C-alpha cells in the first residue's frame, strides 16, 4: 500500500517537473533552413535569474550557444560552431520568451538543445529539444550478372546514399538466398550511405527471376521499390528430342531436334556421330537432323553439341534401326482396335442416356 502511494507521489513529482520548462521535444529540419527552438517557463513560482541555451552534439560535447541575463544582457559565445547563426527571437529577449532561431542550419547542428533556467533559490531547471536534420537519400539498385555455380555470390545490390537518418533497405523475392548485413558508412557531412546485397548460389533456373529491393526513409512519403530480374549466365543445356525408339529400315522423314538453352544465347549447334562419320542419308538443318530414308548407316549414336561464350553442352542418343514396321505396328493396331471399341461403348451409353 505504502509502495503504491510513494509510486504515485513519484509520478506526480516527475509529472510536475517535466511540465516546468516547456520546449518542443523534437524539431525537424533540412540543411539551409532556419529553425526556431521555443522555450518557456510558465508559473515558475520562484525567482528566475538567467536563461542559457546549451548545445549537446554528443554525450560528451556540451557548449553554451546563447545566454541572456536581464541585467548583463545577451551573450553568444564565439567558440560555438553556431556562432553568427544563432540569435534570440525577440530583441531584446526576455526571461518569459527566450526562444532562439538558428539560420542556415547544417547537418552538424543535429543534437540536443537544452534551454536551461537558473533559478533562485533552487538551482537549474531545463527542457530539452532534439534537433533532427533530414537529408533525402539517392537510391539505386542493380542486378549483378553472375555465372551459375555452387558458391553464393552477390546477385543484386541496393544502395541508399547520403541520407539522414540512415535508410532502411529490405528485399522481397521467392529466391532462397540471403541478405547480407547492411553496411552503413558515415559521410563527412553527417549523412549516411547504406549498402545491402543479396547473395545466392545461382542456378541456371534462377535466370530472369524477380527480386525487389525496397528503400524506406523518413523523407519519403512511401517506400521506393526497385524491381529487378536476375541475370545468371550458364553454358548451354542440351537435349535431343524426336526419337521414339521405333525407327525402321525404309522409314522416310525421321528427324531429331536438338533443344538448347543458355545465357548468353547459344551461337552454334553441331551434329556429330560417335564414329565421326555423318551417314549420307542424313541432312543437317541447323538444330534439326533429318533422315530422308532410314538404313543401317543410321544405326549409330548421334551427338548434338551447342556452344555459347561460356562453353558448350551436349546430348547424345543411340538410334537402333529395326527390321521392319510390323513387329511394333501390330501392337499399335491392337491398341487402335481397343480404343475404337471403347468409343463405341461410350456412344451407345450416351444414346441410352438420352
Ligand atoms: C516486385 O515489385 C513488383 C512491383 O512493385 C510486384 O509486382 C512484384 O510482385 C514484386 N515481386 C516480388 C518478388 O516481391
Ligand atoms: C544463408 O544463411 C543461412 C543461415 O545463416 C546459411 O545456413 C546459408 O548457408 C546461407 N545461404 C547462402 C546462400 O548464403
Ligand atoms: C527503419 O527501421 C527501424 C528499425 O527497424 C524503424 O524503427 C524505423 O521506423 C524504420 N524507418 C523507416 C523510415 O521505415
Ligand atoms: C545397331 O546397333 C546395335 C548397337 O547399338 C547393334 O547391337 C546392332 O547389331 C546394330 N544393328 C545393325 C543392323 O547394324
According to CATH, the fold-level topology of the largest domain is: Immunoglobulin-like
CATH level 4 superfamily of the largest domain: Immunoglobulins
Strands of the biggest beta sheet: in what spatial order?
1-9-8-3-4-5
- Main beta sheet: 6 strands, mixed
Distance, first to last CA: 89 Å
Fraction in beta strands:
over 45%
CATH architecture descriptor name of the largest domain: Sandwich
Structural class, by secondary structure, is mainly beta
Short description:
Residues 1-18 form the signal peptide. With 354 residues, the chain is mainly β.
Give your account of this protein's structure:
With 354 residues, this protein is mainly β. It has 3 domains: 18-133, Immunoglobulins (Immunoglobulin-like), CATH 2.60.40; 138-230, Immunoglobulin-like, CATH 2.60.40; 235-318, Immunoglobulin-like, CATH 2.60.40. It has helices at 2-20, 326-353; strands at 26-29, 35-37, 47-56, 62-69, 73-75, 86-88, 100-102, 111-120, 123-133, 138-143, 146-147, 153-163, 168-173, 178-179, 183-186, 192-200, 210-216, 224-229, 232-241, 247-248, 252-263, 268-273, 282-285, 288-293, 301-308, 311-318, 321-322. It has a 6-stranded mixed sheet, with no helix packed on it. Strands 10, 12, 14, 15 and 16 form a 5-stranded antiparallel sheet that branches. Strands 11-19-21-24-23 form a 5-stranded mixed sheet, with no helix packed on it. It is rod-shaped, with a radius of gyration of 41 Å. The site of one 2-acetamido-2-deoxy-beta-D-glucopyranose has 7 residues, from strand 13, strand 17 and strand 18. Residues 152, 177-178, 199-201 line the site of one 2-acetamido-2-deoxy-beta-D-glucopyranose.
Amino acid at each position: 500500500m505504502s509502495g503504491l502511494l510513494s509510486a504515485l507521489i513519484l509520478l506526480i513529482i516527475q509529472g510536475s517537473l517535466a511540465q516546468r520548462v516547456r520546449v518542443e521535444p523534437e524539431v525537424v529540419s533540412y540543411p539551409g533552413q532556419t529553425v526556431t527552438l521555443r522555450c518557456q517557463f510558465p508559473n515558475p513560482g520562484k525567482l528566475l535569474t538567467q536563461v542559457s541555451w546549451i548545445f549537446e552534439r554528443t554525450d560528451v560535447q556540451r557548449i553554451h550557444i546563447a545566454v541572456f541575463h536581464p541585467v548583463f544582457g545577451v551573450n553568444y559565445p564565439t567558440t560555438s560552431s553556431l556562432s553568427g547563426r544563432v540569435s534570440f527571437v525577440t530583441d531584446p529577449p526576455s526571461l518569459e520568451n527566450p526562444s532562439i532561431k538558428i539560420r542556415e542550419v547544417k547537418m552538424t547542428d543535429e543534437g540536443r538543445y537544452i534551454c536551461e533556467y537558473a533559478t533562485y533559490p533552487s538551482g537549474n531547471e531545463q527542457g530539452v529539444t532534439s534537433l533532427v536534420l533530414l537529408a533525402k537519400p539517392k537510391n539505386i539498385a542493380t542486378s549483378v550478372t553472375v555465372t551459375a555455380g555452387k558458391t553464393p555470390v552477390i546477385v543484386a545490390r541496393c544502395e541508399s546514399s547520403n541520407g539522414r537518418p540512415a535508410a532502411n533497405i529490405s528485399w522481397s523475392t521467392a529466391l532462397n538466398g540471403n541478405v547480407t548485413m547492411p553496411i552503413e558508412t558515415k559521410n563527412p557531412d553527417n549523412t549516411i550511405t547504406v549498402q545491402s546485397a543479396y547473395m545466392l548460389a545461382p542456378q541456371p533456373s534462377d535466370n530472369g527471376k524477380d527480386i525487389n529491393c525496397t528503400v524506406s526513409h523518413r523523407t519519403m512519403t512511401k517506400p521506393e521499390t526497385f524491381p529487378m530480374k536476375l541475370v545468371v549466365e550458364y553454358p548451354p543445356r542440351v537435349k535431343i528430342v524426336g526419337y521414339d525408339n521405333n525407327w525402321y529400315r525404309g522409314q522416310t522423314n525421321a528427324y531429331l531436334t536438338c533443344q538448347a538453352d543458355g545465357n548468353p544465347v547459344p551461337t552454334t549447334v553441331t551434329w556429330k556421330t560417335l564414329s565421326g562419320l555423318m551417314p549420307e542419308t542424313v541432312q543437317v538443318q541447323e538444330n534439326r537432323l533429318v533422315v530422308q530414308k532410314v538404313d543401317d548407316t543410321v544405326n549409330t549414336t548421334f551427338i548434338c553439341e551447342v556452344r555459347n561464350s561460356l562453353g558448350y553442352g551436349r546430348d547424345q542418343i543411340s538410334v537402333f534401326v529395326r527390321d521392319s514396321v510390323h513387329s511394333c505396328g501390330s501392337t499399335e493396331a491392337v491398341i487402335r482396335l481397343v480404343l475404337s471399341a471403347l468409343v463405341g461403348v461410350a456412344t451407345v451409353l450416351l444414346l441410352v442416356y438420352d
